[in-house]
Design a protein that fits this description.
Order of helices and strands: EHEHEHEHEHHEHHEEHHEEEHE
Number of helices: 11
Number of domains: 2
Radius of gyration: 25 Å
Mean pLDDT: 88
Shape: elongated
CATH superfamily of the largest domain: Reverse transcriptase/Diguanylate cyclase domain
Strand content: 15-25%
Largest sheet: 5 strands, parallel
Oligomer: single chain
Length: about 325
Amino acid sequence: MKKKILVIEDDEYTLDFMCNGLEMLGYHTTPTKTAAEAIEHMVKEEPDLIILDLLLPDMNGFEICEKLKDNYFTSHIPIIIVTAKGEINNRVKGLSIGADDYIVKPFDPLELDARIKALLRRVRRDLYANPLTRLPGNVAIEEEISECVQSGNKFAVCYLDVDNFKAFNDNYGFVCGDSVIKLTARIIESAVKDSNILRGFVGHLGGDDFIFIIPPEQVDEVCNKIIRAFDDLIILKYNDNDRQRKYVSAVDRQGHIQKFPLMSVSIAVVTNENREFHHHLQVAEVSTEIKKMAKKIQGSVYLKDRRRINAKQIETY
C-alpha cells in the first residue's frame, strides 16, 4: 500500500514539484496550500507523514507543528519541515517543538525520498518497539525475517530463551525480573555489535524471548559471547544463599514446590545453508523444534539446525 503524504506548501510551483516527484517515487500525496486545508484533510484521512513549509498565509508553520504534536491523535505523525537555505534558527526552532526532520530548499527529490524512508522506518520501529528494552518488536521482526527469506542471501536466525526465568521472577519480583530482561537485551546487542557485523539485527519477541539475525559464519562467535557474558553476569542477580545452593525454590504449574536451577539461555539457530525457506513462518516452525531440543540440555547452550532438507519437503504456507 502506498504511503500517504500530506504536503502543506503555499507556493504553487514548489507544491507541484514536490507532489509530482513524490508520486513518481510511489507515494500518494495530498497537496494543500493552507493550514485550514491541511487540518480538514487530516480529519478525513490520517497521513503517514507531513511535509510542512513554515511560511503559510493563514497560520505560522511553527504553530501547526506545535498543535499537531500536542494533539494525542496526531502526535505520532512524523513531520518534515521545509526551510530556506541559511534559516538555521527556523530549523532549530522547528526541531525543538517536535518536527522530526527538515530539508532545505532547493532540494533533490531523491534526497527527500531518502529522508522520508529513513523517517518512516524509524517511526515504525519506535511504534512497535518493546517498551522495556526498546528493541524492535514482533512486527519489525517478522518484516526482517521476511526480507532475509526473500533476499536469497545466507542468514542465521537465532531464537534465545531464558531458562528458569519464571522461577526467578516469582521469587525476586517483577522489578528484578525486568532487570534480567534488560540485561539479556544488552548482552545480545553487545555480542552482535562487538563482532563487527555490518547487517545484524536484534529484536525482542516479548517476555524472556529474543531474536538476533547474523551471518551463518559468525554463529559460533556470537553465541559463545552471549553465553559467556550471560553466565558471568546472571549469577549476580541472585542473593548469596541462592548463589551457593545454585537453585531457587518455586511453585511449578501443577502447584508443587520445586527446585529450579539458576537461569541459563537456550539458543535455537536456524539457517538457510542446507535448506530453502519461502516464508517467515517456516523459519519460526523450525526454530520451535530446535528450541525444544536445546532446552532439554542443562545449562546455557546453542543448538544449530544442521539437517539437509529439500525445498519440496518443506510445507509452503
